[in-house]
Amino acid sequence: xxxxxxxxxxxxxxxxxxxxxxxxxxxxxxxxxxxxxxxxxxxxxxxxxxxxxxxxxxxxxxxxxxxxxxxxxxxxxxxxxxxxxxxxxxxxxxxxxxxxxxxxxxxxxxxxxxxxxxxxxxxxxxxxxxxxxxxxxxxxxxxxxxxxxxxxxxxxxxxxxxxxxxxxxxxxxxxxxxxxxxxxxxxxxxxxxxxxxxxxxxxxxxxxxxxxxxxxxxxxxxxxxxxxxxxxxxxxxx
Length: 238
Description:
Layout: E1 2-5, H1 9-13, H2 16-28, E2 32-35, H3 44-48, H4 52-65, E3 71-74, H5 77-90, H6 97-105, E4 107-109, H7 110-117, E5 126-133, H8 137-142, H9 147-154, E6 157-162, H10 176-180, H11 182-198, E7 203-206, H12 209-221, E8 227-230, H13 231-235
Parallel strand pairs: 1-2, 1-3, 3-4, 5-6, 5-7, 7-8
């Protein structure tokens, strides 16, 4: 399969290793991976802030960039949710609505693509670590993904998966939410991270790089030893 990578802003600017790991796993599975350099932000910050005209322009650009792509795969559930769930809303009544729906049907979150589209759970990864998984809000609530990442993690050799008591609790990032309401965001991060530490895990894994920045930032400032890794980074480990 020819896979077009959608690389979110956070990955491009702050965690490029996540994009590289995503490409590595897909290539190791025998797929042809491309990166279309004209891609930009999915438009979610503008959408969440109520600037729908700006977000709509971003959506139309994405339709142009990914025209003809066999499948589009992104290592961010929140950005994939924007493209799949909210592009058709943004373009309701627009002449290009059919294109938005077509792109939505061809766009997948990374772990979802492996399990639901390819039917793969074991990618040959090996990592000796005790891991707990954080369910990002968009992946869990918009895309309905819960078991898929856990199946992939359970297949990693040497990895022990433990559940946090607050696994499905929001980390407090929420994009613009953390900017507008920093004190509430920090309090939410504290609840989340205290539970993660209590799990006894060495690593916190998630499918959303933005959540990992929030969680990792709080844990670092609190001097906690537990580290963060994206799902793609775990699956690329050998």
